[in-house]
Amino acid sequence: LEVKMKEPRGALIVLEGLDRSGKSSQSSRLASYLKEKGYSAELWRFPDRTTDTGKMISAYLANTSQMDDRCIHLLFSANRWEKRSLMEAKLKTGTTLIVDRYSYSGVAFSSAKGLDFQWCKAPDIGLPAPDLVIFLDISPEEAARRGEYGVERYEKLDFQKKVAESYKALRDNSWMVVDASQSIDHVENELRDKVLECVLDCQKGNPISHLWL
Ligand code: T5A
Ligand code: NA
Question: Which of 8, 18, 28, 63 shows its CA 20 to 30 Å from the CA of 109?
Answer without folding.
Answer: 28
